[in-house]
Automatic annotation (TrEMBL):
Class in the EC hierarchy, top level: isomerase
Keyword vocabulary terms for this entry: Gluconeogenesis, Glycolysis, Isomerase
Species for this entry: Methylopila capsulata
Lineage of source species: Bacteria, Pseudomonadati, Pseudomonadota, Alphaproteobacteria, Hyphomicrobiales
InterPro entries per record: His_Pase_superF_clade-1 (IPR013078), His_PPase_superfam (IPR029033), PG/BPGM_mutase_AS (IPR001345), Phosphogly_mut1 (IPR005952)
Name assigned to this protein: 2,3-bisphosphoglycerate-dependent phosphoglycerate mutase
Pfam family, one: His_Phos_1
Length: 208
């Protein structure tokens, strides 16, 4: 039985382009982001990947990326399940601010701490640990059982919500997780054993 899970961060969003903290705000994809998403679908098709079910967040940048990937794969319709548990980390008072302006307001070190520490949240927002606590139970209850049952599963979400899943899948420490970069629209393919350990992992990379 093939137990396959594919994780994809959404394509470039309008706020990524403007260097803004996005969090739970809902900007769309840029033209580049649309092209990146379609390119991700083509790379998956070239690798012979198909899906039985897809999961995504409640935010349009992830939903649109998911749509474009599935469109490139063609074939039968794939059920898509949307849930806020897969939303990006909530950046609280940083949301909507240019990252350079945030550094001017709070200082380089404090903003770096909010962005790169595991358990220190920005004002009114979530730490990465908070994001793990929100995302992981949903993954364990709703996504992982389908993968282990042999359903080829796509998860299209966000940098930090996907890091929460990668932390568990790859058994990373919090420090190692903080160093893990996820590029836009770069599929990561996990083939899993029956005991939910990883049999193999392949990063298809980003690019148009």
């Amino acid at each position: 039985m093939q137990r396959r899970l594919v994780l994809v961060r959404h394509g470039q969003s309008e706020w990524n382009l403007k260097n803004l903290f996005t969090g739970w705000k809902d900007p769309g994809l840029t033209e580049r982001g649309l092209a990146e998403a379609s390119a991700a679908g083509r790379r998956l098709k070239a690798a012979g990947v198909t899906f039985d079910v897809a999961f995504t967040s409640k935010l349009q940048r992830a939903q649109r990326t998911n749509q474009l990937i599935l469109a490139e794969l063609g074939g039968r319709a794939v059920p898509v399940i949307e849930d806020a548990a897969l939303n990006e980390r909530d950046y609280g008072e940083l949301t909507g601010l240019n990252k350079d302006d945030a550094r001017k307001t709070w200082g380089e070190q404090k903003v770096l701490m909010w962005r790169r520490s595991y358990d220190v949240p920005p004002p009114g927002g979530e730490s990465l640990r908070d994001t793990v606590a929100r995302t992981l139970p949903y993954f364990v209850a709703q996504i992982l059982p389908r993968v282990l049952n042999g359903e080829q599963t796509l998860v299209t979400a966000h940098g930090n919500s996907l890091r929460a899943l990668i932390m568990v899948l790859e058994r990373l420490t919090p420090d190692a997780l903080l160093q893990r970069e996820l590029f836009t629209a770069a599929p990561i393919i996990y083939d899993m054993n029956a005991d939910s350990t990883i049999a193999s992992v392949k990063d298809l990379g980003a690019g148009l």
